[in-house]
Amino acid sequence: MDRREFTASLVAGGCAGMCVDLTLFPLDTIKTRLQSQQGFYKAGGFRGIYAGVPSAAIGSFPNAAVFFVTYESTKSLFTGYSATNLAPITHMLAASLGEIVACLIRVPTEVVKQRTQANPSLNTYRVLLNTLHEEGFRGLYRGYGSTVLREIPFSLVQFPLWEYLKVLSK
Length: 170
Hints:
Elements: H1 3-23, H2 25-35, H3 53-77, H4 87-118, H5 124-135, H6 144-168
Membrane topology: Multi-pass membrane protein
Subcellular location: Membrane
Family: Belongs to the mitochondrial carrier (TC 2.A.29) family.
């Protein structure tokens, strides 16, 4: 991957991810509160619908940027295979590696964001400090494995299909 492609993946991926995350944030808050053990209204109901948005805003760009840089870099490592029947496998591998790396940023962001959404009386910084104090650094990665296992199946279908449709549209 040359420098221009790297920069394009970094900036385009980061901007796209941030736009999606910030646009859909209120729906994500409602979903988190509906799933809260304390119940929707005790978790904040419809008030403070943007509680946790700072963690989403901070983590969104690097999360998406890292995914797309990893995805495109992995694809470029296997360039010779992209013209063969192995192209879908290359895309699956690239997307899976992208998810594994992106989750290193996504999971701590999600932990802080969801805890803030479920307890809007605390701000993002306080939730981060509480998590580090009570659970240590590992607390930020609670659910890393299950998140990766949830994301990879989507990528195994989505990215080979996306690449195939890009070729078809040319």
